[in-house]
Amino acid sequence: MDFVNKYTANIDDILQRRQVRPTANRIAIFRELLNAGGPLSMAELEERLVTIDKSGLSRTLGLFASRHLVHVIEDGSGAAKYEACQGHSDHSIDDMHPHFHCEGCGVTVCLDDTPVPLVPVPDGYEVYSVNYVIKGLCGVCASKYNG
């Protein structure tokens, strides 16, 4: 089995474990999210996956979110961003990390090595996700504005 088929088979397994039928479009969308290196907006996914229409993307991302395959990140830019979950359970605290949103260029990046502090919640509550966004200027924008 060559690398591409092996990679697709792994995506098939990931989708099936979350009870999502692995169609060609779903595999393509999930592969793009895995390869992105950070969260992507719907518009960015549309640019990258020109053969999949907006309604197909929207339905698939909604399905992925409901099955805990993606995190939905509200970074204050006005557009939700999507990131493939890397955790191994439905609600993995191991997969939660902060994001940095650059107010200069609009890019949002993952801060994978920065832990999100656990916040105590009332008894009986269950935490499924944490949306922790730090805003400022990335290194490139900071040097433009300050240099």
Summarize the structure.
With 147 residues, the protein is an alpha+beta fold. It is built from 5 helices and 6 strands, in the order H-H-E-H-H-E-E-E-E-E-H.
Strands ordered across the widest β-sheet: 1-3-2
Category by helix and strand content: alpha+beta
Q: What is the radius of gyration computed over CA atoms, rounded to a whole number of angstroms?
A: 17 Å
Strand count: 6
Q: Describe the largest sheet.
A: 3 strands, antiparallel
Fold and architecture overview:
This protein is α+β, with helices and mostly antiparallel strands and about 150 residues long. It contains five helices and six strands; from the N terminus they run ααβααβββββα. It has a three-stranded antiparallel β-sheet with strand order 1-3-2. A hairpin with a 5-residue loop joins strand 4 and strand 5. The N and C termini lie far apart (about 50 Å). Residues about 1-5 have low confidence and may be disordered.
Index terms:
3-stranded mixed sheet; 147 residues; alpha+beta; 6 strands; 3-stranded antiparallel sheet; globular
